[in-house]
Amino acid sequence: MSPLRRRFTLTYRVALLVAVLLVASAVVTTLFTLRSVESAIATQSERSVENVHASVGTLVAVEYEGIQAYRDGALTRRQASLADIMDTLVATLDGIRRQVALGVLTEAQGRQQALDMIPTIRYGSNDYVFTFDREMNAIAHPDPDIQGRNLIDLRDSEGKAFIREMQSVALSGGGYLDYQWIRLGQETPSPKVAYTVHYEPWDWILGTGLYVDDIDAEAASRLESAQAILAETLGDISLGESGFFFILDESGELVLQPPGIDLDSLPDTPAGRDYVAQVIDSAPAADGAIATFTSTATLDGREASWVTNVSRFQPLGWVLVSAVPAGDLVGPARTLALQLLTLSLVVLIVGLAAGLLLSRRIVRPVEDVTRAARDLAEDRFDPAALDRAAQRQDEVGELARTFQRMGRDVVEREQSLREQVERLSVEIDRARVAADVSEITDTEHFRRLREQAEDLRRRSKS
Q1: I want to staple 396 with a disulfide (CB 3.0 to 4.6 A). Which of 124, 313, 365, 407 is the partner?
Q2: CA distances to 85, 102, 375 from 126, in Å
Q3: What is the pLDDT of residue 59?
Q4: Where are the domains of the chain?
Q5: Which pLDDT belongs to residue 346?
Q6: Is the pLDDT of residue 402 over 80?
Q7: What phi and psi values does residue 87 have, to the nearest 5 degrees?
Q8: How many CB atoms sit inside 10 A of residue 98's CB?
Q9: Helices 395-441 and 444-461, interaxial angle, to 10°?
Q10: Residue 429: Cβ-neighbour burial (10 angstroms; 0-12, 13-18, 19+)
């Protein structure tokens, strides 16, 4: 059989069909799986990054709440001490008034005694009390530059009309207020909290205050320590293969970056400034909300397409940023896709080999039957050639057994017919000889010869 003809035999056609089906199935399944897996893993990676980003935001909020809890607690204790001092002052004034009521002191003497005493009161770190009349004239103040002046329009270094507010708070039942004020003997204003009350018997406004810059300094120190710890924590956070987390302020200045990451030069290039501007513009207004954008930038010396998540923490004026190369998000998907592709190729090769063996197992008996039919046509049929195919218990085996029986019958019938033809040929030859002899003896010449022979035989007898 020629190679070209063999190429179109049933074996090769079945094998080719199996191969085409397997290849088509493998290609369609692999492409669909790769697309689905890549999309699913990329989405999962993006959600993981967002979850990490949200966790960092929660961590920042917790640290800040701890610092605020310290500050609020310290401030509350300090305010409570102010109320205690003011209660003591009011009790002292009430004692002077009782002396006036008993006649020990006149009204004028009692008031003067109180006004002389109040500027001398000291507590804490050289802190003091002061007194104003209803029009906010300083009638008892330890600072000679203030004593006797009307301060109703006085403002602190931040422009706050705190004296007018102090008047309003006192006349409304008393309470606290914050402002900036200069310590005695110093020149730089510091934050201060004051407590004022209205002493109705003499229509005085009493007040005292404590500076809280030490509380703010301690809170700032705690915030600085928290930032250092947070920077170390950011270095331990895994965002893809090479992503990282950093923090900017609302003006775009770098606040925190993980160890080993260099973003100091980010504002030095136009592309870096554009990236920072995009980060600030993308930051949601509400705390906790996360915005995402993708842009090409050079971060930590690497130019790539970065998927950036941005959120805001307004109490500190921070913008939280997580940046991950886009390739990191699809990297796991590509790895899994490559594994799936390799597995598909292995399955395809195994399937092709199994398909070829299966096709050979199915087609070989058919080839045996085909060969037997050809041998039968060429008068060289051997029933034993179909023994292997006839042992099968499927339709092909039934075909082989049927053809084997049919072949035997055909051979036997052909043999019988051949013998009959041979016998018939002998009889035909004999008849033909007899006919030829009859034709010879029936001629006139042969009759004369026969008559002459009879005449000779008669003469010889006589």
Answers
A1: 365
A2: 14, 34, 128
A3: 87
A4: 74-217, 218-326
A5: 74
A6: no
A7: -60, -40
A8: 12
A9: 60
A10: exposed
pLDDT of amino acid 32: 66
**Distance between CA atoms of 355 and 319, rounded to whole angstroms?**
61
Asked whether the domain spanning 218-326 has the same topology as the one spanning 74-217, the reply is yes
CA–CA gap between residue 294 and residue 300 (Å, rounded): 17
334, amino acid identity? R
Superfamily of domain 218-326: PAS domain (3.30.450.20)
Please classify residue 160 by burial: count the beta carbons closer than 10 Å to its beta carbon, then call 0-12 exposed, 13-18 middle and 19+ buried: middle
Using H for helix, E for strand and C for coil, what is the string for 426-450? HHHHHHHHHHHHHHHHCCHHHHHHH
Start-to-end CA span in the chain (Å): 84
Residues 264 and 288 sit within 8 Å (Cβ to Cβ): no
Whether the model pTM is above 0.70: no
Q: Is the pLDDT of residue 427 over 70?
A: no
* Contacts of residue 81, Cβ cutoff 8 Å, sequence gap at least 6: 124, 210
Pair of tokens at residue 154: 């006085």
In this predicted model, what pLDDT tens digit does every residue of 449-460 receive, in sequence order? 667 667 666 766
Name the superfamily (CATH) of residues 74-217: PAS domain (3.30.450.20)
| Per-residue pLDDT band at 392 (split at 50, 70, 90) | confident
CB 89 within 8 A of CB 121: yes
Distance of CA 236 to the CA centre of its chain: 19
257 phi, psi to nearest 5 deg: -145, 150
